[in-house]
Amino acid sequence: MDPAEVERVRALEAKLGCAFLQPERALEALTHKSFVNENRAEGCADNERLEFLGDAVIDLAVSHKLMQLCPDAREGRLSRLRASLVNEEGLARVARQIDLGALLRLGKGEERTGGRDKSSLVADALEAVLAAIFLEQGFEGVLAAVERLFGDLFERARAGTLDADYKTALQEQAQAVLHAPPRYRVVAEDGPDHAKTFAVEVLIAGEAFGAGEGRNKKDAEQAAAKQALERIAVGSAPPER
Known about the structure:
The structure is a single chain. The chain is mainly α. It folds into 2 domains: about 5-160, Ribonuclease III domain (Ribonuclease iii, N-terminal Endonuclease Domain, Chain A); about 165-235, 2-Layer Sandwich (Double Stranded RNA Binding Domain). Helices cover about 60% and strands about 10% of the residues. The protein is built from 11 helices and 3 strands; from the N terminus they run ααααααααααβββα. It has helices at about 5-15, 25-30, 35-40, 50-70, 75-85, 90-95, 110, 120-150, 150-160, 165-180, 215-235, and strands at about 180-190, 195-205, 205-215. The protein has a 3-stranded antiparallel beta sheet with strand order 1-2-3. The longest helix has about 30 residues, at about 120-150. The N and C termini lie far apart (about 60 Å).
């Protein structure tokens, strides 16, 4: 393998915390079809077959973990939790946390159109990477990788906040109780681009009612909305400054 591709695989291993016995398979998982179409002379394979397998592998690993974390949850809730974790946006969020897009082999056209940050593309690549782990290390290897990658989301599932829509609830309560809509603003961003955390404040009628942090703005807004709902429930007063 070309030295640059060896480094690409090593970077992936560092992000995942595991090693590949067959680095060619890991490289395949990082190869988009646009790269293959533009480099047919190299005889490389794209990641679509691995993506197919990875889709099933992730479903199984996430289902297994959710049953461990939520022993009292019924089938319907487990299904909703799993869907929120393994849908395209959920997988893309996890892929972005490890900056998987930076390691992908893309065609020039895909590169120019921002392929490294496309949700569909990075989500598919994450599935392919986990399939590559499965083929080398079996289900236990995939489960270990999923536990590392989805750790924060699994904690939210255990706490019962993963599938809660606090923003919608706050929108309704703010209008009904305070007669004003909530407004969110980012007050801080910390960390490198691939592991950034956001701090968000929610205001109602110009007063701060809640604050929250998260790995992305959406999660931070949900946390802020949850705090605001709690404050409204105990008396409709904004927090002391």
